[in-house]
Amino acid sequence: MPLTPLDIHNKEFSRGFRGYDEDEVNDFLDQIIKDYETLIREKKDLAEEKRLLEEKVSHFSNIETTLNKTILVAQETAEEVKQNASKEAKLIVKEAEKNADRIINEALSKARKVTVDIEELKKEASVYRTRFRMLIEAQLELLKNDDWDSLSKPFEEEEIVQK
């Protein structure tokens, strides 16, 4: 068990023949007591400082652990967000491709219908033109025909008779 300043102060030495000078021994012991008290105080201060530092280390260690966990959660969340965004992007692309295919198919269908309609109109126009030409040619033939002259003679004769 270590000595305390009180143990040093209360220490009594036995006297011998021609012993040490009592005042000198007492002065020396007083100096030892002061130094010993100073050391004990410093030890207590250092122990308190050590305790405070250990608390700070513990606190910062907890903060570090919490930050590490937070970083892991943030990384996992970022990865989830990234995966979800990727999935959503793929769905959007698929939907866009479907819409593009549908639009292209509708456009092709309309183009085919328009082409068929154009061909049909060309045929109808050709038939109409042919019929119109035949009608005009028939009318020209009628005009060229000499029968017109014979048709107009009875009317001319009638006019002469009436005059």
Automatic annotation (TrEMBL):
Compartments, record wording: Cytoplasm
GO BP term (any one): cell division
Coiled coil: 29-56, 86-124
Pfam families (UniProt xref): DivIVA (PF05103)
Keyword check for Coiled coil: yes
Keyword terms: Cell cycle, Cell division, Coiled coil, Cytoplasm
Top-rank taxon: Bacteria
Chief subcellular location: cytoplasm
InterPro entries xref list: DivIVA_domain (IPR019933), DivIVA_fam (IPR007793)
Biological source species: Terrilactibacillus tamarindi
Family the UniProt entry places it in: Belongs to the DivIVA family.
Protein name per UniProt: DivIVA domain-containing protein
